[in-house]
Amino acid sequence: MVHSVDASQRALFPAALRGLKGRNAELTTLARAVRETAPTRLALVGAGGSGKSVLAAALAHRLAGELPGGIHWFRVGAWDFRTLAEMLALRFGTSRERHALVPALRAFLAQGGARLLVLDNHEDDAAMARLLDALSGTPATFLVTARRCLLAGVLIFPVTAPLITSGRSAFPRVAKLTRMLRWNPLALDIADAIVVSRGASVAELSRFLEQSGIATVHVIEHEDDLPEVALLVAWAWRRLSPASRRMLGVLAHVEGDSVDVTSLAQLAGVRQARVREEALAALERLHLVQTPMRGRFTVHAVVRHAVRKRTSLAPGEVFQHYVSLLEEHPERLMVEQTHLFAAMDHAHRTSDLQAMLRIERLLAQLGA
């Protein structure tokens, strides 16, 4: 049984197993490593779109029955140490008081037996090092996913594209595009969806990619700036409706995790139910969005980067939407907590005292 109070992640584990292609050997190796060294600290490190989060979810699913303390999934991003620790404290119901924060977390993790904490999409090495060191010596195993990870005392497991070392393709339908897309599973999944939807044949996609310069060698901005994915997003963008584009743009700019249909439609300005359903169906059909649970949507970080270059969304608009929503519906605090932390980060960045006070009142309710 998967134990996690984060509702947005409840469907992630079986979904990961359905999407796992060519990873059985790696999954077996990781499971053995956790069993033989637990409690341990393990980092899955690889390029954007290489499948780190999917592999982490599949590993958690495989180990679920062996962890009496349960599995707990956190999206961590670039949060600082205090924010990371408060996220854990709010999840586990422990003290958020500054001097009691770490001792209370350690006391909680010491009870209930072995558990797995997945810290997904890690970006701040200093903050993560401080957190892992502060909570060392407890029965908790920490699994970090990151594009790069400069942490001592952590077992680094490199994640590469599945089957790349054998030269085989994990997506037989678009096998001819495997080398062109450099075995990237995210790019191949989108290409496969395009072919399945009859948007283009393999030959037509191949010509488009070649003409768009897929083979050109150039400097990229960072690990999420992948031309293999960006070009497929560009192919799809020309064929998407304005409503689909606006919805995809919202998902690319929202800093919290998954967005429910109602919030997505409101932020995108898509008011008619029929238009909303058609817009989302097109995005799902092309695998441009992910659905961690029914009725909630998100995008992969690599797709996010490609779409952000084409769209804009005022951070204040997102802040106002979610803070107002949670003030009116505090019962949704647990489900929308990543959006609350994103709002807190926005308030800190803008030094908006009134915004900070609104956030603190919501955090107090969440803690209660």
Task: Characterize the structure shown.
With 368 residues, this protein is α/β, with parallel strands linked by helices. The chain contains 16 helices and eight strands. It has four domains: 7-158, Rossmann fold (3-Layer(aba) Sandwich), CATH 3.40.50; 172-237, no CATH class; 242-308, Orthogonal Bundle (Arc Repressor Mutant, subunit A), CATH 1.10.10.10; 316-367, no CATH class. The radius of gyration is 21 Å and the shape is globular. Mean pLDDT is 88; it is low at 1-18.
Element layout with pairings:
Blueprint: H1 12-19, H2 24-37, E1 41-45, H3 52-63, E2 71-75, H4 81-92, H5 101-109, E3 115-122, H6 125-134, E4 140-146, E5 155-158, H7 185-196, H8 202-211, H9 227-237, H10 242-253, E6 259-260, H11 261-268, H12 273-285, E7 290-293, E8 296-298, H13 301-308, H14 315-328, H15 337-350, H16 353-367
Parallel strand pairs: 1-4, 1-5, 2-3, 3-4
Antiparallel strand pairs: 6-8, 7-8
